[in-house]
Write a structure and sequence with these properties.
Elements lengths: L2 H6 L6 H8 L3 H8 L10 H13 L6 H6 L6 E6 L5 H16 L3 E6 L4 H13 L4 E5 L4 H10 L3 E5 L8 E4 L1 H16 L7 E3 L6 H16 L9 E2 L5 H9 L8 E4 L2 H13 L5 E4 L12 E6 L2 H10 L10 E4 L2 E3 L11
Parallel strand pairs: 1-2, 1-3, 3-4, 4-5, 5-11, 6-7, 6-8, 8-9, 9-10
Antiparallel strand pairs: 10-12
């Protein structure tokens, strides 16, 4: 039976089909396709012939079935909240690269910050016998950890911390203080407090950034009214509306909590023919070139993902929280991993 006929019958190519086409035994074909043919002392010419036929016939190994026959699946999963900025895109790219370096097959799913979707995704990954689940920016990381623990699967938290698994996060507090200090130095303390725009007050990361923002004002003896912290969400339109709703004069400079919010801020400033200095806890190469940009905080994605993979083999009762320092980028700098 030819490959064309099998395709016409809409039947998946099997090891036995490849064995027949290559004149090799099914066990030899299996060894060649799983990479153990050298240990079996199978001739290189035979291996090359089998691989060529497998590629030509569109053979795809059934990873789930294969995993059931092995002690390890070599699959690692990541739950991702969004793909809407450079930060999460950079995390996904680094995750895939590091996984393959360790001989692991990476799978990623986006859950749109929906806690029910997060758990559903974790259960699906468990069904494919993933060895680890990395919960990135999860809204309820502990629920994911409990779901995975019940199936004997290890979880680790990235970007947002949890109480029931190791966590690797940015040092949001220190990064926010540094950025606030930079903006205040540029605008001058005589011009009053800055305006904080973007994020959700209940979010761990936003909360830490607000503390850093407040503490730097307090350190300089600058009174910061609650009205100067606009936790309006991340969406650009929400940032625009928050600025529209101000009942006081726009301050001399802004602390913007993400590049998503920054888009709305810039649109509002242009629409109202206003100019003001700003800094952003987020990094983007184009936003870094804007004329009124004082500086941006870039989260060190490479260091964060490295720290996660360093902890794959730590004891199961490990609950360590690792805080990775952020990088303060000055105007015109265009080298970086991404943004959050």
């Amino acid at each position: 039976m030819t490959g064309t006929n099998r395709n016409a019958e809409n039947r998946r190519t099997t090891i036995y089909d490849i064995a027949q086409l290559s004149s090799a035994s099914p066990s030899a074909v299996s060894a060649i396709l799983n990479g153990s043919w050298k240990k079996r002392r199978i001739a290189k010419a035979t291996a090359e012939r089998v691989i060529e036929i497998a590629e030509r016939e569109g053979y795809a190994r059934n990873l789930q079935a294969s995993a059931l026959r092995r002690e390890r699946s070599n699959v690692i999963g990541m739950i991702m909240p969004k793909y809407d900025n450079r930060y999460f895109g950079a995390i996904a790219e680094q995750f895939e690269a590091r996984a393959r370096q360790r001989g692991l097959f990476p799978i990623i799913t986006c859950t749109e910050r929906d806690p029910d979707l997060e758990v559903e995704a974790a259960r699906e990954m468990i069904g494919y016998r993933v060895e680890h689940v990395i919960a990135t920016g999860a809204t309820d990381p502990d629920r994911i950890a409990r779901t995975c623990a019940a199936a004997g699967v290890r979880t680790l938290n990235l970007d947002l911390p949890g109480r029931e698994a190791p966590s690797v996060i940015s040092d949001n507090y220190a990064g926010a203080r540094e950025l606030t200090a930079l903006i205040l130095d540029r605008v001058g303390t005589d011009n009053g407090p800055l305006l904080f725009v973007g994020g959700r007050a209940a979010d761990h990361n936003t909360g830490a950034r607000i503390r850093g923002f407040r503490d730097e004002h307090a350190e300089r003896g600058i009174e910061l009214p609650d009205s100067h912290v606009l936790t309006c969400g991340y969406a650009s339109e929400k940032a625009r509306k928050a600025l529209d709703d101000l009942d006081f004069e726009l301050p001399g400079a802004l602390f913007v909590n993400s590049t998503i919010s920054l888009e709305g801020v810039v649109r509002w400033l242009r629409a109202n023919k206003r100019r003001t200095l700003f800094g952003c806890f987020d990094w983007d190469p184009f936003a870094a070139l804007l004329e009124d940009n004082v500086g941006m905080v870039r989260q060190d994605v490479s260091a964060m993902v490295s720290a996660i993979f360093d902890r794959l083999d730590t004891p199961l009762d490990d609950r360590e929280e690792v805080r990775v320092p952020c990088i303060l980028c000055h105007p015109g700098e265009t080298d970086g991993d991404g943004a959050s």
